[in-house]
Automatic annotation (TrEMBL):
<keyword id="KW-0539">Nucleus</keyword>
<dbReference type="InterPro" id="IPR048899">
    <property type="entry name" value="NMD_SH3"/>
</dbReference>
<dbReference type="GO" id="GO:0005634">
    <property type="term" value="C:nucleus"/>
</dbReference>
<dbReference type="GO" id="GO:0005737">
    <property type="term" value="C:cytoplasm"/>
</dbReference>
<keyword id="KW-0813">Transport</keyword>
<feature type="domain" description="Nmd3 N-terminal">
    <location>
        <begin position="17"/>
        <end position="240"/>
    </location>
</feature>
<dbReference type="InterPro" id="IPR048898">
    <property type="entry name" value="OB_NMD3"/>
</dbReference>
<keyword id="KW-0653">Protein transport</keyword>
<keyword id="KW-0963">Cytoplasm</keyword>
<dbReference type="InterPro" id="IPR007064">
    <property type="entry name" value="Nmd3_N"/>
</dbReference>
<comment type="function">
    <text>Acts as an adapter for the XPO1/CRM1-mediated export of the 60S ribosomal subunit.</text>
</comment>
<dbReference type="Pfam" id="PF21192">
    <property type="entry name" value="OB_NMD3"/>
</dbReference>
<dbReference type="GO" id="GO:0000055">
    <property type="term" value="P:ribosomal large subunit export from nucleus"/>
</dbReference>
<dbReference type="InterPro" id="IPR039768">
    <property type="entry name" value="Nmd3"/>
</dbReference>
<feature type="domain" description="60S ribosomal export protein NMD3 SH3">
    <location>
        <begin position="243"/>
        <end position="289"/>
    </location>
</feature>
<dbReference type="Pfam" id="PF21193">
    <property type="entry name" value="NMD_SH3"/>
</dbReference>
<dbReference type="Pfam" id="PF04981">
    <property type="entry name" value="NMD3"/>
</dbReference>
Length: 498
């Protein structure tokens, strides 16, 4: 403890302390430092030992309040703010302690005006005792049923390609971290949140990334009549359009005309923020957003299990095709061709089918393809039943077929997955997931929005002579899985001051 006084002049003399009588320079209290120490303690009222609560789950300190001070300490014990009322804070710093001692010592230097305007300065140490206590956020995570809002994502389809794509988008943008629990159920996923704001953020993200529509409802849980506060549980219902990649759809005449007079029977080649359609007869392409779809809805005419395997018997590229007036854009990545195909299950017969395809740049005589057989199918669709049978093709080719077991052995990359509860899952999930991985290999535009990681456990064992031409993902597009360690050295001792 010492005085803070103005510089003494040459003519200033000494006075005697009014208590002990020793000569001292003049000061407003007329007392020496030792006598003032016995009379006044400017740190009185400030606790010298305080308990702080440390959460082992999220590894952060909980804010606390003591005396005239409100101190907020975040990870690595960084002091952020001080709010003092009666004393003035001059300096503050942490003192080094053993990491396992569960003690945090902080040295404070304060000033205060005392008797007759004298200003005293004092240095003391405050000791914080660390005690384990789970924070409120971790309580909500551990209590699975303690949620304030839920986002119910649904899609009425028999394939989960859109959900697999959505999962990778959530992992890339880290929007799944705020969820208390993620539960996968039939036809969708439920995301539980501790606040309505986090749920609304998820709904806004879904509306920007996939074509969907949402509804909101809330249920009153409790009401405090004294403070006029209400406690609600909110439910956000998000419905994704029931169309997946490689689906054959039949558009309404009005929608087909508005998209550039394209054919009513189209193939969905991709689902991102919009539905990407292509006409297999003319190569016309169009994009249908969520609002357009709900005004003019259409459904899928087949599911992946109804696709049959065909073999290409003959192919003829169509190079000069003139479209009518008002036609829309044509795809530059595909080639229009006329093909003769035969079912692999009917190789002992002479039955063949003629159709047009947009895969002319990939197909050769003898290749295997997957397609939908319109000629031998009974389909109940509102728009298809009203079409002229002359414009309905016998077969619509969807994709080229490769050996799946060989592609799985050569696949040297992997995707991350969200931690979620599974309930009532089908045995067909593994096949659908492999279909999604094959779609990523075949569609470069689709995997641009997804983080693909190198699988170090896979070693290429096949030679180039065993290559069947199946598309593969290059090493340039793969990321390395990184594990970031604490940059402060783990214990954080270097951040303490002696």
């Amino acid at each position: 403890m010492e005085y803070m006084r103005a510089p003494a002049t040459s003519s200033q003399g000494n006075i005697l302390c009014c208590t002990c009588g020793i000569p001292i320079p003049p000061n407003p209290a007329n007392m020496c430092v030792d006598c003032l120490r016995t009379q006044v303690d400017i740190s009185e009222g400030i606790p010298k030992q305080v308990s702080v609560h440390f959460c082992k789950q999220c590894e952060r300190l909980v804010s606390w309040q003591f005396g005239l001070y409100v101190i907020k300490i975040k990870t690595f014990l960084m002091l952020k703010e001080y709010f003092l009322v009666q004393v003035r804070l001059i300096d503050a710093g942490f003192l080094w302690t053993e990491p396992h001692s569960k003690r945090i010592k902080m040295k404070l230097t304060i000033q205060k005006e005392v008797m007759n305007g004298a200003i005293l300065q004092q240095v003391f140490v405050v000791e914080f005792v660390v005690q384990s206590q789970m924070c409120d956020d971790c309580h909500r995570v551990e209590a699975k049923d303690f949620w304030k809002a839920v986002v119910q994502v649904r899609q009425k389809t028999q394939h989960k390609k859109t959900f697999y794509y959505l999962e990778q988008l959530l992992l890339k943008h880290k929007l799944h971290q705020n969820a208390l629990n993620i539960k996968e159920i039939h036809e969708g996923i439920d995301f539980y949140y501790g606040s309505k704001q986090h749920a609304q953020k998820m709904v806004d993200f879904l509306q920007c990334t996939i074509p969907c529509r949402s509804k909101t409802s809330q249920r009153l849980i409790s009401h405090d009549i004294h403070s006029n506060t209400y406690n609600y549980k909110s439910t956000f219902s998000v419905e994704i359009v029931p169309v997946c990649k490689d689906n054959v759809v039949c558009l309404s005449p009005r929608l087909a005309q508005s998209l550039g007079n394209m054919g009513q029977i189209c193939v969905c080649v991709r689902v991102t923020s919009t539905i990407h359609l292509i006409d297999p007869n003319t190569l016309q392409i169009a994009e249908v957003d969520g609002n357009t779809y709900w005004r003019n809805p259409f459904s899928s005419l087949c599911n992946p299990r109804q696709l049959e395997e065909f073999i290409v018997m003959d192919i003829d590229i169509i190079r000069d095709l003139k479209l009518g007036a008002g036609a829309g854009m044509r795809s530059n990545k595909h080639t229009l061709a006329e093909v003769w195909v035969q079912k692999t299950s009917e190789m002992d017969t002479s039955q063949q089918y003629h159709c047009r395809t947009f895969l002319g740049h990939l197909l050769n005589i003898g290749d295997l393809v997957l397609g939908f057989d319109f000629a031998n199918s009974n389909i109940n669709d509102e728009f298809l039943n009203k079409m002229n049978p002359h414009y309905v093709p016998d077969v619509v080719i969807i994709k080229k077929s490769y050996d799946r077991s060989r592609r799985m052995r050569r696949r040297n990359w992997k995707l991350q997955e969200m931690a979620r509860d599974r309930d009532g899952m089908d045995t067909d999930d593994e096949r659908q997931y492999q279909d999604f991985l094959e779609d990523l290999e075949e569609d470069e535009a689709l995997r641009k929005n997804i983080n693909i990681y190198k699988d170090v456990s896979k070693v290429a064992v096949e030679s180039d002579t065993d290559d069947d031409g199946a598309p593969r993902i290059s090493l340039v597009e793969m990321l390395e899985e990184l594990s970031l360690n604490d940059a402060t050295g783990g214990e954080g001792a270097d951040m303490m001051t002696d």
